[in-house]
Amino acid sequence: MASLEEQKKAVEFNRESLESTLKRRFFYAPAFELYGGVSGLFDYGPAGCAFQANVVDQWRKHFILEEDMLEVDCTMLTPYEVLKTSGHVDKFSDWMSKDPKTGEIFRADHLVEEVLESRLKGDKQARGLGSEIDGVEEDADKKKRKKKVKQITAVKLDDELVKEYETVLAKIDGYSGEELGELIEKYQIKNPGNGNDLEPPRAFNLMFETAIGPSGQYKGYLRPETAQGQFLNFNKLLDFNNNKIPFASASIGKSFRNEISPRAGLLRVREFLMAEIEHFVDPEDKSHSKFDEVKDIKLKFLPKNVQEAGSTKLQELSVGDAVSSGMVDNQTLGYFIARIYLFLMKIGVDPNRLRFRQHMSNEMAHYACDCWDAELQTSYGWIECVGCADRSAYDLTVHSKKTGEKLVVRQKLDTPKEVVQWELSLTKKLFGPKFRKDAPLVEKYLTNLSQEELESKAKEMGDNGKIVFQIDGMQGDIELDEKFIKIENVKRIHHVREFTPSVIEPSFGIGRIIYAVFEHSFWARPEDSARTVMSFKPTVAPSKVLLVPLSNNKEFEPIIAKISKTLKKEQIPFKVDDSGVSIGKRYARNDELGTPFGITIDFDSVKDDSVTLRERDSTKQVRGSIEQILRAIKEITYEGSTWEKSTSELPEFVSQSE
Ligand SMILES: Nc1ncnc2c1ncn2[C@@H]1O[C@H](COP(=O)(O)OP(=O)(O)OP(=O)(O)O)[C@@H](O)[C@H]1O
């Protein structure tokens, strides 16, 4: 007989079948369906809610509890000023191209990707090489779109062009709007629906704008990430942590992005649950005290130089080697990459369909010093599910500069240190008459200048006898000469080291992870492809146990009540199915929900309190006393045991009901 793993792979993965199961068992469904639905908005049903709650619970235990993180819950409504300062107002956008004749809008990078992929497919067909790209089935949405106009045409491409397309696809995440425009022009990419020309890509900001309060004057946004709230509470958290770093904050909550074209179910939506960590660390020492615990874990990496050379070949090496070779920038980043891997394994991600892809130089935010995405392979391709970036000191620095509030760590030095530094002195009595009500604003601007800025201003003063600058919220140039301000290079003895910490940020999209786990867990029994199974790990399965009486005979009621009471007391989620359908059907329904265990109550149970326990994937059954069976369930679900270990003493039970 084929092994369980072989059986799971015997029937080819079918996305339509998965989607129909998810819908039928109400894991999630389009929101506002009665009103026709809104793209990118989904409601979770009971099974989806329980699954999500279990994933979040695992996340909280794996990160917050195990790493002593400081959890915060910050507001989703965020004032304009905060997101202006963080750079989101100016830069948090994707590129869109419009068909001016029909008004249709395309996300430019996705369009280029789809068109080039379909041309490469056509080329493969023309060469008689089949049409699979990387062995992954093509996106059904894409298929539909293409079908509307024209099928993939088998056209052989020039060898050079194939290489060019492959290189562009390997680098697709890194192009600017202008570069995407050039690609659209160069490769004659049109509206796939009608062949119309498209306008050059324009930036579209992804944030949902709103007004806070009745006046409409106070502009705000729904947050696009949870990070900013964590940065703004830095001083309170540092104080809570007795002024010691490194430490990490963490937050779980909804974020909102007005995606240009939401698609692929839960993978690209407009409102989603995020779980984010901000780990604050000394920029001069990014080692991690627990690095040794993870250094031997082997992972599949896709480094930037490989992608920049137009390839997607993975490199398998240990986290220790990845850091010591300099491929991953520092130990803390490496530590989190490994911890992300361990978390994903805990909740049921297939290790063969996980890779860590490094951001290419042109893809990374200018302030970041290294960034890796945990990507999960699904029928939609490789999808970024967790981002893990070293954001350096950017966020704390910009918020500090804007608000005038220091967001720094102060450490007492064992040996005082002589430091040469730039200092400025202001003749404050002249500021009032010159700037009136704006005087405090100008003073704040000047006292917040960094060492580099002071150095350049000192040079400007030396060269021109004055400095010229502008301030947000004040009109025109401001000029100051030496009567107002002096900038000098002075020697000081420092007893305290003051620095802005770097931030390492693992950022999880819970919905994307959940969907990938759905795909990785889904299979159909080889003997009947309509009998589908969700092989969820017991820890994350929505319900752990199905209680099935042989029939709805009244004699079973006391024993059901007894087991139910114990399960409730033990806080083990369960369902009773005493419907009239056959036991086999009742099991099958719960296999679709991923319920790992079934307890069957029969006439022997009434006599001697014994029941049978069924394991979902193998459909194996054993018999034991209620106590023994519940112990086994508890051990496997919550204490890391296995079916083999926890049921080895119990006799096998051969059932006719499957
Ligand atoms: N529209 C979305 N729908 C669902 N999850 C999302 C969405 N956008 C981002 N996420 C999740 O949030 C995580 C962190 O967000 P991040 O800003 O790094 O994503 P991103 O780089 O903008 O993603 P993408 O390039 O796919 O749009 C992602 O790894 C992903 O899991």
UniProtKB/TrEMBL annotation:
Its EC number is 6.1.1.14. It holds the Pfam family HGTP_anticodon. The keyword Ligase applies. It catalyses: 2 ATP + H(+) = P(1),P(4)-bis(5'-adenosyl) tetraphosphate + diphosphate. Residues 221-526 form the Aminoacyl-transfer RNA synthetases class-II family profile domain. One of its GO terms (biological process) is mitochondrial glycyl-tRNA aminoacylation. Its main location: cytoplasm. SUPFAM superfamilies: Class II aaRS ABD-related (SSF52954), Class II aaRS and biotin synthetases (SSF55681). Keywords: Aminoacyl-tRNA synthetase, ATP-binding, Cytoplasm, Ligase, Nucleotide-binding, Protein biosynthesis, Transferase. InterPro entries: aa-tRNA-synt_IIb (IPR002314), aa-tRNA-synth_II (IPR006195), aa-tRNA-synth_II/BPL/LPL (IPR045864), Anticodon-bd (IPR004154), Anticodon-bd_dom_sf (IPR036621), Gly-tRNA_synthase/POLG2 (IPR027031), GlyRS-like_core (IPR033731), tRNA-synt_gly (IPR002315). GO terms for cellular component: mitochondrion. PROSITE patterns: AA_TRNA_LIGASE_II. It is found in: Cytoplasm. GO terms for molecular function: ATP binding; glycine-tRNA ligase activity; transferase activity. Belongs to the class-II aminoacyl-tRNA synthetase family. Catalyzes the ATP-dependent ligation of glycine to the 3'-end of its cognate tRNA, via the formation of an aminoacyl-adenylate intermediate (Gly-AMP). Also produces diadenosine tetraphosphate (Ap4A), a universal pleiotropic signaling molecule needed for cell regulation pathways, by direct condensation of 2 ATPs. Thereby, may play a special role in Ap4A homeostasis. Homodimer. This is glycine--tRNA ligase. It comes from Hanseniaspora osmophila.
